[in-house]
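#help-structures
NK: newbie question, is this the right format to request a structure? protein is LacI family DNA-binding transcriptional regulator
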Amino acid sequence: MAITVKDVAHAAGVATSTVSRVINDHPSISQATKKKVQKVMDELGYVPNISARNLGKRTTSAVGIILPPLDSKERLANPFFLEIIEAINGEARTHNLTTALAIAKDIDTLFENVKAMHTEKQVGGFIITYSVIDDPIIEYLRKHSIPFVLIGQPYDALSNTIYVDNDNQLLGQQATDYLIKNGHQNILFITNTTTENIFYERYFGYQKSMMMAQLNAHQSLTLNAPDDYIKFEDKIQATNTTAIIALDDIFALRIIQLVELYGYRVPDDISVISFNNSIFSTLTHPYLTTLDIETEKLGQIAMHKLANLIKGDRIEGTRFVIPHKLIERETVIAKRHASK
């Protein structure tokens, strides 16, 4: 049976309103009474309900986590978002904060959800887990001076936006450098989105690496609509591709299926490298060679910075970069050049 405020009040010999004031650290309650009530709460194992405490204070100790529109099965199942939510939740607890999710299938509904969370004072700030151009949600948060932290690089107002990110251009460059080091020259960059900043940064890194190696940087291939997949084999043949960079791990698994569908083998005929080092990277053989973006640290630092913003603490700088590392597995091998 759960311990209630009434149980604590009875055991401490005080009114329930006194217990509520102790929980909310009200200045009208003496330190002696606070210690007395706190001792009883500890002995009874009573844990204050954060939501009830917030209601009594007419403030909030919750933060909102905004996921991108979950408009596809791939995005819905992407482990990055589950991992980032878990990391944010864990860090929030260290700041005595709870979290609430803002999710929807389209941007308009998501925007309405965020507005409702703000106007109904459900949360004191937000963490946005994606970065797209002309995002109405970011515009709304800025307009109303609502504390928020972005995971990813913003498209504008970089000096006025607190954001936590990897160096995604460097990620794209290092993935390409690794393939070139293994003898690959015809390398194709494949994505399933062209609206998120993460694509542009990683693709720019690919282009930079190819140009520095004096190799031809191909136009990226977007596989999103069903008709796009028909173009896949034509692109592979036209470019004589021996290696592919996929935007993330779950998308890389789809690429590997396509490669094998058209009679190629991974990594014997075509090597594949991706990003995130999610659980999917070791669920099937061959295990994915990928770049670990330290998802847990992204979430932790974003939550820590948001807690500082909510408290009004001064934050030095706006960009906080999380390091990454290459995880060598089974989907990249050295290119075997045909003998003459």
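mod (FA): yep, format's fine, and the tokens are attached above. Residues 295-311 form the longest helix (17 residues).
NK: thank you!
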